[in-house]
């Protein structure tokens, strides 16, 4: 979803200009927010249960599909009643935005396909699901532009059509495991409880990428909002990179049942990825004006500080994604949800007064304050859970980077063998995850 935001954000910025881009950004923010708020973050929950109990994939797969369809349907109902607001934002009759209303259902079914492939350790199918959800949307958007059909209503149609086609591709690729899935009440309950406790963590992403756009639509001019959202779009790059690493590593870490091995492997990933994020920020932040000019156009470079400050928040968000992984792996969704709720609550409370005082710069400042609060609370929770000093969480250790590269290159299996005594390695207690093929019936 974040890569789709960036890809289509570049296309729309080029096609629409700052003012109309700001309107579409506000409309997109409303639709994405409803979709994510109703999703109850079931995707991470489904990945956790599929990874931890691979031999019981049938009940988790079938139950996960029910959850996906259910939350998507709830989102459609909510947007149906918000249609007049959507029409006001886009400046068009609400009836022309019918495709936008269907977005939550299409998004959740598409997300289920990618989530199932991720949880079942099928990296190639997961990659196809992720890529097609973005490229299909972009291709349809370009086709509409070429034939002169680029209207607010057809932008929503392109989104829904791209997601639906991606979901159909995922269904075909996952036909075998899906054919053996079943609905189970206990699995529904486990998925829903874990997801509901962790759901407040999704608010931070919404506040960073969507809520602030919707609020700023009523506080600043559409042109200023258009300049700001290109920085937010660039800030998606580090968040998407950290999210991709999390999606690759999280299922394998969650599958480790040895507490000490899981702890050492998780800390190694946190140290390495956070160091890479900080190094990337130092290198890429000065290049923000050049990237905005190349990707979006020179008309967006009115005040270089606006996109640079928005990009900086993206790096803070990516650090939170990395550290939050430990709380998900250790089955602490409540702690994660509380930390993120406090952070996003502070950001939302500060955005209006700071924008009134500092103008558009108040938005990234509010996000930064709330983000740093959530990050600090999460680091403190990790320190308490693992009973390690702060330096063991933050500063890289010898061999961390080499271990990280080896694990990423394998695209999934994490054994933490280097952290275990030889006798434990031979015991077979920690083994590589070979996928779902071994538990599928012939």
Structural notes for this entry:
The protein has 442 residues and is mostly helical. It folds into 2 domains: 1-199, no CATH class; 200-418, no CATH class. The protein is 79% helix and 0% strand. The protein contains 20 helices and no strands. It has helices spanning 2-38, 42-52, 57-81, 83-90, 98-101, 103-119, 123-146, 152-173, 175-179, 185-198, 201-216, 222-255, 259-284, 288-295, 305-329, 333-358, 362-386, 390-394, 400-409, 422-427. Helix 1 crosses helix 12 and helix 11 (201-216) packs antiparallel against helix 12 (222-255). It starts with a helix and ends in a 15-residue tail after the last helix. Residues 411-442 have low confidence and may be disordered.
Largest sheet at a glance? none
Using the alpha-carbon principal axes, give the shape: globular
Structural class: mainly alpha
Order of helices and strands: HHHHHHHHHHHHHHHHHHHH
Tally of individual helices = 20
Helical percentage:
over 70%
Number-wise, the strands total 0
Count of domains: 2
Taking all Cα atoms into account, the compactness measure Rg is 22 Å
The N- and C-terminal alpha carbons lie at a distance of 35 Å
Low-confidence stretches: 411-442
Report the average pLDDT across residues: 81
Proportion of beta-strand residues: under 5%
């Amino acid at each position: 979803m974040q890569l789709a935001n960036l890809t289509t954000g570049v296309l729309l910025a080029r096609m629409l200009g700052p003012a109309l881009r700001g309107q579409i950004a506000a409309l997109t923010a409303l639709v994405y927010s409803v979709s994510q708020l109703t999703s109850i973050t079931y995707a991470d929950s489904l990945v956790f249960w599929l990874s931890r109990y691979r031999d019981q994939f049938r009940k988790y797969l079938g139950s996960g599909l029910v959850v996906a369809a259910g939350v998507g349907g709830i989102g459609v109902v909510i947007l149906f009643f918000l249609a007049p607001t959507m029409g006001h934002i886009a400046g068009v009759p609400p009836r022309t935005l019918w495709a936008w209303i269907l977005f939550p259902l299409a998004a959740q079914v598409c997300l289920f396909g990618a989530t199932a492939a991720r949880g079942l350790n099928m990296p190639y199918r997961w990659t196809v699901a992720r890529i097609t959800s973005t490229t299909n949307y972009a291709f349809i958007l370009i086709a509409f532009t070429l034939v002169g059909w680029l209207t607010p209503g057809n932008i929503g149609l392109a989104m829904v059509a791209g997601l639906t086609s991606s979901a159909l591709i995922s269904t075909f690729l996952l036909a075998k495991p899906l054919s053996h899935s079943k609905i189970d009440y206990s699995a529904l309950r486990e998925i829903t409880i874990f997801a509901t406790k962790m759901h407040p963590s999704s608010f931070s992403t919404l506040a960073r990428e969507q809520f602030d756009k919707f609020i700023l639509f009523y506080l600043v001019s559409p042109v200023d909002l258009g300049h700001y959202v290109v920085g937010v779009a660039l800030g998606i790059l580090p968040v998407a990179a950290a999210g991709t690493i999390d999606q690759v590593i999280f299922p394998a870490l969650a599958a480790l049942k040895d507490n000490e091995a899981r702890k050492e492997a998780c800390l190694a990933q946190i140290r390495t990825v956070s160091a890479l994020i900080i190094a990337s920020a130092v290198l890429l932040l000065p290049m923000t004006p050049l990237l905005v000019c190349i990707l979006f156009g020179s008309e967006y470079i009115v005040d270089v500080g606006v996109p640079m400050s928005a990009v900086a928040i993206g790096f803070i968000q990516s650090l939170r994604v990395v550290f939050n992984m430990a709380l998900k792996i250790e089955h602490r969704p409540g702690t994660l949800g509380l930390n993120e709720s406090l952070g996003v609550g502070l950001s939302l409370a500060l955005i209006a007064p700071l924008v009134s005082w500092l103008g558009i710069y108040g938005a990234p400042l509010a996000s930064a304050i709330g983000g740093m609060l959530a990050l600090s609370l999460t680091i403190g929770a990790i320190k308490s859970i693992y009973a390690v000093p702060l330096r063991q969480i933050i500063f890289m250790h010898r061999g961390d980077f080499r271990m990280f590269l080896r694990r990423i290159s394998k695209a999934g299996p994490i054994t933490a063998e280097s952290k275990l005594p030889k006798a434990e390695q031979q015991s077979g207690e920690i083994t590589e995850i070979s996928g779902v093929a071994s538990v599928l019936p012939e």
